[in-house]
Amino acid sequence: MGEKYPIEYNWIRGVESLEEYRHGGYHPIMIGDLLCDRYRIADKLGFGGYSTVWLAEDTHVKQFVAVKLYKVYGEPETVPITRYDGKPLVPLNAPAKAVVPLFLGKYAEKFSLSDAHPLLSDFGEAFSPASEARFGKDCHTPPAFRAPETKFESQTPLAYPLDVWSLAIAIWEIIGMKSIFSTDYVDEDEIVSQHIDVLGPMPPGWWQRWGGRSRFFDEHGCPTESHRENRWPPLQESFEIGIQKWRKRVGDEMTENEKSAFLDLMRRMLQFRPEERLTAEEVLSSEWMVKWALPDYERSQKG
């Protein structure tokens, strides 16, 4: 029987919350346990808020699930469980040992492009502007990736420049460690203020129509006192903070020539006016793509 009061256990790095081993919580499992007279526990794959997930052998067909991965990663790693108060473990609560989840992946810094197999999905949002009209008010692109015309020209049909803006944000995030605009849950007016902080003044007509402007800027375009403390850095400074600093740590910083070409590409893809942005063809023929991105991609394919 379990104890009347919750039991505290000594913390073990990388395993589930051991206090969840209780009546109505996690079921205690050990390596070698046989479930339903069929599934022999071999290792742990992970855990969540409501369950633990295990690698098991189906003894009826004499096969292990992901048996090759199990052999590669060796014997399961277990750590004895002890109570915080030093008392002996109570039967039917936590098991005698915690099992560290089996890591079947590969650390990001060891990935090359040839390792990646992206799955493309549009969640029903993709459409052809040539055959279907959608308007800015109907755009469901995440705010950090959403072009400003969706707000300021909400009754105008969307077109391909919208994708060029989103692509620039995605390239920035892939190349660096910090998004150029906030990916936190913030309202669209705050994202607009970040556009101005990073890219400079927006078109005058948009500026005059922006209802949330007074939260961030006065009538002369100067930041309010509260916004001054939370401004996002201009484009080049954002590059140094969000990209170059992290690349320096791993010895892969951009040269001055590449940096110049990259920032030029970002500026031309992130023009406020959609008609002033590069086309997809112009992006592919840009200096940064031709001299750095595409050669890197080709080298990775050979590796």
Automatic annotation (TrEMBL):
InterPro entries: Kinase-like_dom_sf, Prot_kinase_dom, Protein_kinase_ATP_BS, SRPK. One of its GO terms (molecular function) is ATP binding. ATP binds at residue 68. Residues 1-289 form the Protein kinase domain. Keywords: ATP-binding, Kinase, Nucleotide-binding, Serine/threonine-protein kinase, Transferase. Its EC number is 2.7.11.1. It comes from the Eukaryota. Transmembrane segments: none annotated. Pfam families: Pkinase (PF00069). One of its GO terms (biological process) is spliceosomal complex assembly. It catalyses: L-seryl-[protein] + ATP = O-phospho-L-seryl-[protein] + ADP + H(+); L-threonyl-[protein] + ATP = O-phospho-L-threonyl-[protein] + ADP + H(+). PANTHER family: PROTEIN KINASE DOMAIN-CONTAINING PROTEIN-RELATED. This is non-specific serine/threonine protein kinase.
